[in-house]
Automatic annotation (TrEMBL), chain B:
Protein's gene: cysD
Enzyme Commission (EC) number: 2.7.7.4
Catalytic reaction annotation: sulfate + ATP + H(+) = adenosine 5'-phosphosulfate + diphosphate
Name by which UniProt lists this protein: Sulfate adenylyltransferase subunit 2
Cited InterPro entries: PAPS_reduct_dom (IPR002500), Rossmann-like_a/b/a_fold (IPR014729), SO4_adenylTrfase_ssu (IPR011784), Sulfate_adenylyltrnsfr_sub2 (IPR050128)
Enzyme class, first EC level, given as a word: transferase
GO biological processes: sulfate assimilation
UniProt keyword annotations, A-Z: ATP-binding, Nucleotide-binding, Nucleotidyltransferase, Transferase
Length: 630, 264
């Protein structure tokens, strides 16, 4: 027989209906060497959930290594694990207890494997926290308890293991129990139960121990059998995140999984941030009985009337039960990257099927794992826990994180598409309450003083328009005109920025966004010195320009250099349009990438007609008016 | 929703994620029971269609019944079939035990197909309960340019957020059946009426529980000649599914070595 192991569920034919029920996932966590793997091995053995030959294999394996029966070998089905003597990754073992199906998720105790643990634990309905009664709670006990809180596992069974080392002494067990209760209480976690046990010897695991006659509570198997099932999410208001839109034959299908609530043919639904409303025309199924409704958990394909086209990431919801909408969001965070997180870092926030660009606006507090207190800090350490504020370029629709649902389960993804953190969303950030936000060191000379000396106030004038619209030419000529009138002025030009400051960026949407962000930050710094800054940047997306406006604040003016595509393409002074049309340049604004014209710019320069000089004069007049020199 | 409904809904979700995020994408179709369930689930996800190619990495040592089945259902299910062939066993790592060495041909054949078709996603029908090494897998399992599986450095995977490729030459193995058990597969086949190669059903007191190459796969003792009888048999069995697969038994680590190198 192979030594690799598969625990299969053994089912009596009488009980076959039971196996048709969904399995309850239970995660087992705890500090390294507190006995998780031993517990699982023992549990599977005592409840007759092992295949023939498996026990003999374990004994054989243990003998080869000169050890007594090592129940943990059961899980160490990978050679590398056995070599290191630790469980490397999370494993799922189906297992049956009386009339109930479970899946045991084994999560490793070694701290560098937090990401593996979260992989196993995130979907569990309940947790068994194994604590060595002799050692008490350790660093990973606290870490794992914190994680149980962050992923929203509410039902926690504490297994006080190795009580044989305390001679099954009731008083000593009670003392450990108190300290663990206090620890969990700090996190707002209330364990459902404490079971004093010895996993190695099988005390109070699947059979009641006669060594702890004072203990009359449920033994572990009884406690597991009493774990409440997952809440039904069908009774909540509908959330259907759009996963994809298909067009097969002449029909358009909107596909997605119902996260909560139910959907019926004829329901009116609001579609995401665009907010249009459509009616469910049909729920389509292949090789399944037709029903005019579907419930939480089902993956569906629906057709809409009118035949609107949602995007992936749009949430479909009842008009009467809208999600929250905010551009600044407070979130908890479990940080999985090996380098610390700092304010100002930018990520993609994945939320169900949606993705949004977000920046870490502030680190509001970081959990100190020694005593679980929340501390102010400038960074989140590797594998740390924190509360942060995320800022997005546009308002994000979301539901506040709620254990037992898929609501508000944000995930941060870096530039390399790596998942670097989990971010349960807590709610819109209170803008006034940003006392923990970064405090950039401001200049000692204040703005009023600079204005008095320079004779004008600071300003950022943001020129947007197509490539070849004349932004740079107008900016440079206006610079001369303004300078000659004594205005302290500088120009930030797109091409110039891309040669230096932004030479690492390409033309993808994310890179363009970052390009805009950097230009805005530099403009803000220059404006703080009292200068007038003229930015000439295509900045095609309204959301990116909105970000610039937010970064710079009240002294920001948007100027639309409005030159039509045909005129720009006719000029094509750099030969770029021709190249883009030939497909030699990807993502070229106006040709193969969108340009979102400003709806309400502070100034619109109609640049199809007239000379650049005239346009520069128009801009100069505008700036003088805005800076108190007009 | 019962257990099978839940498994189906989750698999459909996974297949739709793969179709949306990984291009080009293909599904491995080994002609076995699990991979037929997988094709069926794709048709559930895409309303009767399979909108990407299915690949058969042919060792040319399968049972004749399997080739017949392939040709019949490629037409019936309107599949876009890609065929790949495996290099001769002499080219495989000679330090592997014989059956594992033979199985390694499939790894090489698969690697060739991934390169030929520049695949970014390969859907495969492995399950956690089949084998200890597979129990460690992710639903979206990234493979580097050499197709190696880096067990020690797997990405986090939670809340249905999956890894996507971020480097030239890497691909993702997508595992929509990871959470299914053998008994779930059979019950689903029964419920849905999914066709199977009849080698799975007993003739003369023997049937195949798992199908591989004919020289390295052994039948088990069984009189189960119908779906209901197979299910009844599985409900009381205490031996593992891959017991008939020679390569699983050759040495403790042969199978893991195969998997790290890119085997399914």
């Amino acid at each position: 027989m192979s030594e690799t192991l598969t625990a299969t569920t053994v089912i009596d034919p009488i009980d076959r209906d039971v196996a048709l029920e969904a399995a309850t996932p239970i995660v087992i966590v705890g500090h390294v060497d507190h006995g998780k793997s031993t517990l699982i091995g023992r549990l599977l053995y005592d409840t007759d959930n092992l295949e023939d030959g498996k026990v003999a294999q374990i004994i054989e394996s243990s003998k080869k290594r000169g050890l007594a029966i090592e129940w943990s070998f059961l899980l160490d089905s990978l050679q590398i694990e056995r070599d290191q003597g630790v469980t490397v990754d999370s494993t799922r073992l189906p297992f049956r207890l009386g009339d109930r199906q479970f899946v045991i998720v084994d999560a490793p105790g070694h701290r560098q494997f937090l990401r593996n643990m979260i992989t196993g634990a995130a979907d569990a309905d309940a947790a068994v926290l194994v604590v060595d009664a002799n050692e008490g709670a350790q660093e990973q006990t606290r870490r794992h308890a914190m994680l149980l809180r962050l992923i929203g596992i509410r039902h926690i069974i504490v297994l006080l293991n190795k009580v044989d080392l305390l001679d099954f002494d009731e008083q000593r067990v009670a003392a450990v129990r108190r300290s663990v209760t206090d620890l969990l209480g700090q996190l707002g976690l209330e364990p459902a139960l404490f079971v004093p046990a010895s996993a190695r010897d099988g005390d109070n695991i699947a059979s009641r121990s006669d060594r702890s006659p004072w203990y009359t509570g449920p033994i572990l198997t009884e406690a597991l059998a009493a774990v409440p099932g997952a809440d039904s999410r069908a009774g909540l208001p509908l959330r259907l995140p759009v996963q994809d839109v298909y067009r097969f034959d002449d029909k358009r299908y909107v596909a997605g999984r119902i996260e909560r609530g139910e959907i019926r043919v004829g329901d009116s639904l609001t579609i995401g941030a665009q907010g249009s409303v459509a009616r469910v025309a049909s729920i389509e199924r292949w090789q399944a009985p037709q029903r005019d409704f579907a419930l939480a958990g089902e993956s569906v394909a629906i057709t809409l009337e009118p035949d609107v086209i949602p995007d992936r990431g749009d949430m479909l919801f009842p008009p009467s039960a809208k999600p929250v909408k905010a551009a600044r969001i407070r979130a908890r965070l479990f940080w999985l990257r090996q380098e610390p997180l700092r304010v100002g870092e930018t990520f993609r926030l994945r939320l169900a099927t949606a993705e949004h660009q977000v920046t870490v606006a502030s680190i509001d507090s970081v959990v100190r794992l020694d005593d679980l207190t929340e501390q102010a800090a400038s960074e989140v350490p590797p594998e740390g826990f924190a509360e942060i504020t995320l800022a997005a370029a546009e308002a994000i629709q979301f539901d506040v994180f709620a254990p037992g649902t898929a609501d508000g389960r944000g995930v941060l993804v870096d530039r390399n598409q790596r998942i670097v953190g989990g971010a349960p969303l807590l709610g819109p950030a209170d803008v006034a309450g940003e006392h923990n936000a970064i405090h950039p060191s401001g200049g000692v000379v204040d703005a009023a003083e600079r204005r008095r000396v320079k004779g004008h106030s600071a300003r950022v004038v943001w020129l947007t328009g197509l490539s070849g619209a004349g932004k740079s030419t107008i900016a440079r000529q206006a610079e001369q005109l303004l300078f000659s009138q004594g205005v302290d002025v500088s120009v930030l030009d797109g091409d110039t920025l891309r040669m230096g400051l932004c030479s690492d960026l390409g033309f993808s949407e994310a890179d363009r966004h970052e390009n805009v962000r950097r230009a805005a930050e530099v403009a803000r710094i220059l404006a703080e010195t009292g200068q007038v800054v003229v930015v000439a940047l295509i900045s095609p997306l309204a959301a990116d320009r909105a970000l610039a406006r937010r970064i710079i604040g009240d002294s920001f003016d948007e100027v639309f250099v409005d030159t039509s595509l045909s005129v720009c393409e006719g000029r094509d002074s750099k030969g770029l349009y021709a190249a883009a049309r030939e497909g030699k340049i990807a993502n070229f604004t106006g040709v193969s990438a969108p340009y979102e014209a400003p709806e309400k710019p502070e100034l619109r320069i109609a640049a199809d007609a007239g000379s650049a000089e005239a346009h520069a004069r128009e801009l100069t007049e505008f700036v003088l008016g805005k800076t108190g020199r007009g | 929703m019962d257990h099978l409904d839940q498994l189906e809904a989750q698999s459909v979700f996974i297949l739709r994620e793969a179709y949306r995020k990984l291009k080009p994408l293909a599904m491995l179709w080994s002609l076995g029971k699990d991979s037929n369930v997988m094709v069926w689930l794709a048709r559930k996800a895409f309303l009767g269609r399979v909108p990407f190619p299915v690949m058969h990495v042919d060792t040319e040592k399968k049972f004749p019944e399997m080739y017949q089945f392939r040709d019949e259902y490629t037409k019936k299910w309107n599949l876009d079939l890609l065929l790949g062939y495996c290099p001769p066993v002499e080219e495989m790592d000679p330090t592997l035990p014989p059956a594992a060495r033979s199985a390694a041909r499939k790894t090489a054949g698969l690697a060739n197909m991934i390169e030929t078709h520049k695949l970014q996603g390969v859907i495969a029908g492995i399950r956690r309960d089949e084998q200890g090494t597979r129990a460690k897998e992710r639903v979206f399992s990234p493979r580097g340019a050499s197709h190696k599986w880096d067990i020690r450095n797997q990405p986090p995977e939670f809340w249905d957020q999956y890894a996507t490729p971020h480097e030239e030459g890497m691909h993702i193995r997508v595992h929509p059946l990871l959470a299914w058990r053998e008994i779930d597969i059979w019950r689903y086949i029964e419920r849905e009426g999914i066709p199977l190669v009849d080698l799975y059903f007993a003739k003369n007191g023997k049937r195949y529980r798992s199908l591989g190459d004919k020289d390295i796969t052994n039948p088990i003792e069984s009189n189960a000649s119908t779906l209901a009888e197979v299910i009844a048999e599985l409900e009381t069995t205490r031996t593992s599914e891959r017991a008939g697969r020679a390569m699983d038994h050759e040495s403790e680590d042969a199978f893991e070595r195969l998997r790290v190198a890119g085997y399914l």
